[in-house]
Amino acid sequence: MPSVVLVTVTYYPNISDVRFPLALELCQLAATKEIQTVIVDDSPDHPAVRDALEKGGKGYIKVYQQDKAIYHGKGGALRQAIYTARELLADANKNYDKCEKTAICFAEPEKVDIANHIHLIVKTILDGRTDIVVPKRSEELFRQTYPIEQFHSENFANLHFNSLAKHFKGFQAENATQIDWLFGPFAFRTSLADTWLNYNGTSWDAQMIPYVRAVRNENRRISSVTIDFRHPKEMKEQEEGDPKWTNKRLQQLNVLFDLLGGKELS
Fold first, then answer.
1. Strand-pair partners of 105
2. How far is it, in rounded angstroms, from Cα 12 to Cα 21?
3. Do the beta carbons of residue 99 and residue 191 sit within 8 Å?
4. pLDDT tens-digit series, residues 14-57
5. Band of the pLDDT at 101, cuts 50, 70, 90?
6. What is the DSSP letter of 129?
7. Contact present, 7 and 38 (Cβ < 8 Å)
8. Is residue 260 within 8 Å of residue 212, measured between CB atoms?
């Protein structure tokens, strides 16, 4: 019986997209680690993406086409993946009640190395010490393996959001004061899935705001664990020094400073 399911969302114009091999590598690594993985895909050529990723996953990967009549945008794809993962865990563990000792973990498909750290990320959830975990990148590998602009912009944002979060009791715990908000991956106890499923955001906010509300409104426990995560060198080579990507990150920060900082943490 699986105790954890990894979820992610994908979109590729075609399978020759520069990022597609990273998603395939993630599927292969997840299979090697025997991690059940649910992918919701919105690619134009969904059958080609599905077949390639499932073949690489050797039975551990299941790819679903995004149901855009119900689930809108990237946030909707995430909710569909979480819903599907919860059903998978409930079926495997016979019912929802037995899912209390199971976890769902999200990571972007380009973050291949996350599969090497899944069990460390979910450990404190499975043993009952916390409800939500946001992994934190080790400072040295963060600086070494990420585009330098991203290293600085995300450190800046993390400092901002942590300075706001410290005013809430749930973020004052010893392992919750230095959340790596901009990393992306997070994990939660499966019984908390409705917190994500009930939030209708369509972008990056759909990852973060639910765990803020779980801590702030439901007194759920959140913690961080540092992992030696290595970002793919292909991403650093593609993005470093390119103003297109710095502009994209600025737009992302503007959205999050408003929706997360201005509306949820203030």
1. 6, 187
2. 11
3. yes
4. 889 989 999 999 999 999 999 999 999 999 999 999 999 999 99
5. confident
6. S
7. yes
8. yes
